[in-house]
Design brief:
Mean pLDDT: 88
Distance between the termini: 33 Å
Bound molecules: protoporphyrin IX containing FE
Strand order of the largest sheet: 1-6
Largest sheet: 2 strands, antiparallel
Structural class: mainly alpha
Strand content: under 5%
Shape: globular
Length: about 475
């Protein structure tokens, strides 16, 4: 026995590697759009790594300290320590500016890839029975990703970020009965107080990333347990050991996890890292030196949240003054309705969606969006709704810089657009798809909805979910690869 075999044996007796090999043969369908989830995963990894670097130098404190770094205009000035430490990272720590930018761009790509991944899952119907639990876990992950970005936005404690973060504080304290308590827990009381940055820092570096990591572990565990969805097959697939009927979704056909899918994932990882490095090398981020430290006595001209929270800001801007009311001693403000209730309803609708578009029997094939008129129409209407709400969040720019008018003139138009354009887009999509030609995938989809079919060929296949681990399924793909 060679040394390598002996070493393998040593580990095998302790770690049951044979069992692990079965997992390494797990099949991954070769679909490009399935890589969006991986991009999100790798962004999270890069966020953690770059965040660890930043954590060595960031000081979560608002106490004033004298600035002695290399930005001339602040020399000798007393400024909040958090702000000073971010200047230090940006201008004096070797590679600090690059890593800070990398962290920033990774956060944006993280949220963007989550959004696109979610749209992929939505439009291909991959949330249907039995994947509803993973859709719900995913919805939670999307909310956590936004929470992570929001809490990070505040940390430099510059004039722009501190003012934008104060919107979140005002929304939190607007919650009837619980607002004051939550304001104290999340923001440490009055905004900004000396406890605000330490609280947000704690949430940003420990609580939220841990929750995301746990959520991701559950997301991946469910994915592995249930196996991926697979695009409908054009014909029966012959693998090394068996022929799998084109309509048999008990067996998944895909690349084996190792080495094929691992190689694809490595390419996705390096492509993600390279894109983020290029962005970080070329494009500056949130210029703290230009904004200056937080100054409670002044308000910056332009206040806006990050693009992915702009739709919430849009609700706040469009909600009329009269939307506030009181029930007994409890005051329900417009801020609470626009900033908490409406976004909460959006997230609740997203989480509830697999139970609205219900399928009784398990479905393991993806659907063609063009053959699902009403579901695709709802998706198109939802995307239009979020986009118009986001434009409303920038109503001051639209009014002042594009249309040369006032916000009070554009707001009624934006409100009408928010209420009318999404249903219109949805109706047009529905009518176009309803009368369209059925696509080839429709057959596979219908068969999958009707439950697994037993065919002479499929009868020889292992049942789900273990069939995904069957090296035969993986072998077939190696054949495809060649
Ligand atoms: C931190 C955020 C997230 C990460 C890192 C992530 C990662 C992944 C990965 C790597 C996969 C397998 C490959 C693929 O199908 O793309 C996957 C599958 C899935 N994800 Fe996510 N995801 C995230 C958020 C979400 C969200 C927001 C939703 C929906 C609300 C969602 C729903 C699903 C579902 C239902 C599947 C199974 C799809 C199938 O089998 O075709 N995920 N996710």
């Amino acid at each position: 026995m060679s040394r390598a075999d002996q070493l393998y044996d040593w580990f095998d007796t302790r770690l049951d590697l044979e069992n692990g090999q079965k997992f390494l043969g797990k099949a991954f369908p070769a679909e490009d759009s399935f890589l969006l989830g991986e991009v999100a995963l790798f962004c999270f990894l890069l966020l953690v790594l770059s965040g660890i670097f930043l954590g060595f130098f960031f000081e979560p404190s608002t106490s004033d300290v004298e600035y002695e770094g290399s930005v001339q205009k602040f020399q000798g000035e007393e400024m909040p320590e958090a702000f000073v430490s971010v200047l230090h990272i940006t201008y004096d720590v070797p590679f600090g500016m690059f890593i800070r930018r990398l962290h920033h761009w990774a956060a944006h790509l993280f949220v963007a890839s989550i959004g696109l991944h979610m749209l992929r899952v939505f439009f291909t119907g991959s949330y249907r029975n039995p994947r509803e639990p993973n859709w719900i876990v995913g919805t939670g992950l999307a909310a956590l990703a936004m929470g992570a970005a929001y809490t990070g936005y505040a940390l430099p404690f510059d004039e722009f970020a501190a003012t934008a973060t104060s919107i979140g504080y005002n929304l939190t304290i607007s919650i009837p009965l619980l607002g004051d308590f939550l304001g104290k827990v999340v923001f440490g009381g009055e905004f900004p107080s000396s406890a605000t940055i330490p609280r947000l820092y704690f949430l940003h570096v420990l609580v939220i990333p841990t929750a995301i990591a746990v959520g991701l572990a559950v997301h991946m565990a469910i994915l592995i347990r249930q196996k991926h969805t697979e695009a409908p097959r054009e014909s029966d697939v012959t693998t090394g050991r068996q022929t799998v009927d084109r309509e048999n979704d008990d067996v998944i056909i895909g690349l084996p996890a190792f080495p094929n899918q691992a190689a694809v994932s490595a390419v996705v990882f390096f492509a993600t890292a390279a894109t983020l490095s290029a962005l970080s090398g070329l494009l500056p981020v949130h210029n703290v030196a230009e904004y200056g430290p937080n100054d409670p006595a002044s308000t910056p001209e332009l206040i806006m949240p990050d693009w992915f929270l702009m739709w919430v800001y849009g609700f706040l801007k469009l909600l009329p003054q009269w939307a506030s009311f009181s029930v007994g001693s409890v005051h329900v403000s417009g801020e609470f309705i626009g900033g908490i209730v409406l976004p909460g309803l959006v997230f609740a609708a997203v989480a509830a969606w697999p139970f609205i578009d219900r399928t009784e029997s398990p479905t393991h094939f993806t659907a063609d969006p063009l053959s699902r008129p009403w579901q695709t129409a709802v998706g198109v209407a939802a995307v239009a709704f979020i986009m118009i709400a986001s434009i409303a969040g920038m109503n001051n720019i639209l009014a002042g810089q594009v249309l040369d008018t006032s916000t009070s003139a554009v707001n009624p138009i934006l409100t009408a657009a928010l209420l009318l354009v999404p249903p219109l887009f949805g109706a047009v999509t529905y009518l176009l798809l309803r009368d369209g030609e059925p696509t080839p995938s429709e057959g596979g989809d219908v068969a999958a909805d009707g439950g697994p079919e037993s065919t002479p060929d499929g009868g020889g296949a292992d049942p789900a979910p273990d069939a995904g681990d069957d090296p035969t399924a993986a072998e077939s793909e190696e054949g495809d690869d060649a």
